[in-house]
Amino acid sequence: MGHYGYLAMLAFTVVGSFWLELFLKVGVLKQVRRLLLSIAPIAAIFIAWDAFAIAHHHWWFDRAQILGIYGPFRIPLEEYLFFLIIPIAGVLTIEAVKKVRPSLFDRAADRGE
Predict the structure, then answer these.
(1) Are the C-beta atoms of 28 and 35 separated by less than 8 Å?
(2) Domain count across the chain
(3) How confident is the model at residue 2 (pLDDT cuts 50, 70, 90)?
(4) Using CA atoms, how far apart are residues 78 and 75, in angstroms rounded to an integer?
(5) b/e map of 89-113 (b: 16 or more CB within 10 Å)?
(6) Which 8-state DSSP code applies to residue 58?
(7) How far apart are the first and last CA of the chain?
């Protein structure tokens, strides 16, 4: 995969889920503030975890598979994109299922889940 390995995986995720916004009109991307408030707390925890692990040499990123662009805490750009794109894809998927099969969520609500 070379320098674009991680980016290719993220691109597949975008292609595989972001179409739900266009075709099913789930409205997730129209609620940017709400989406970011949902993602930010967990992303912050994982960024802190990455920063700690990198600083203590517990793990690293294969330089042959990243672009070499680093953000704060020497975390590669691809990792930050991962913490943004993957949760958005998850929310899009959940909202799409709710739109196509609302009865699944109605039954869960009835059971108190």
Answers:
(1) yes
(2) 1
(3) low
(4) 8
(5) bebbeebbeeeeeeeeeeeeeeeee
(6) S
(7) 42
Weakest-pLDDT range from 39-48, 84-93, 103-112: 103-112
DSSP 3-state assignment of 76? strand
Those residues whose C-beta lies under 8 Å from the C-beta of residue 31, and which sit 6 or more positions away, are: none
Residue type, 42: I
pLDDT given for residue 96 in this prediction:
93
How far, in Å, CA of 61 to CA of 51, rounded?
12
- The pLDDT tens digits for 40-80 are 999 999 999 999 999 999 988 888 888 899 999 999 999 99
- Amino acid (one-letter) located at 101: R
Domain that holds residue 12: 2-110
Tokens of 57: 């040499």
